[in-house]
Design goal:
About 75% of the residues lie in helices and about 0% in strands. It has six helices and no strands. Helix 3 crosses helix 5.
């Protein structure tokens, strides 16, 4: 409910609708809503992929799969009781809907939390290799 009210408030603000024009330009509101939800659906696919590849979910999957393998069960892991709920989309409906409806805010959070961290980690790794090369170049053959 909060997500829907937030979505309506955000769409009202970004569509530049006053109280009276909201009713007179309903086609604009419908078009804006369809476009916004379409973008949100695409964003939710990206976020779901990131979620499934996150260390938290991968750790749960690996632990559950080891337990699954230790049992004498002949079905598929995905359909078994050992498959973790965090990796099932039907158990994450609220999360997915919030990604779809509140995608602008989710993008901002992603930019400041994940994207900048990834860039910082990439720069740190590259600089580390340069520093190692400089150190090795400064050593004589006897020191290496």
């Amino acid at each position: 409910m909060v997500a829907i009210l937030t979505y309506l408030a955000v769409s009202w603000f970004f569509a530049d609708l006053s109280h009276l024009s909201f009713f007179t330009s309903l086609t604009n509101v419908i078009a804006f809503t369809i476009c916004s939800l379409g973008i949100g659906a695409l964003w939710s696919l990206w976020k779901w992929r990131k979620w499934m590849n996150s260390p938290r979910v991968q750790k749960l999957l690996n632990r559950s799969f080891k337990e699954f393998k230790s049992q004498d069960y002949h079905g598929s892991f995905k359909d078994s009781v050992w498959f973790p709920g965090e990796a099932k989309s039907q158990n994450n409906i609220e999360r997915i809907i919030s990604w779809i409806v509140l995608w602008p805010f989710s993008m901002v959070v992603y930019f400041f939390e994940d994207f900048l961290s990834d860039i910082g980690r990439w720069i740190y790794n590259r600089l580390g290799k340069v520093y190692t090369s400089i150190t090795e170049a400064a050593l004589t053959d006897e020191m290496k």
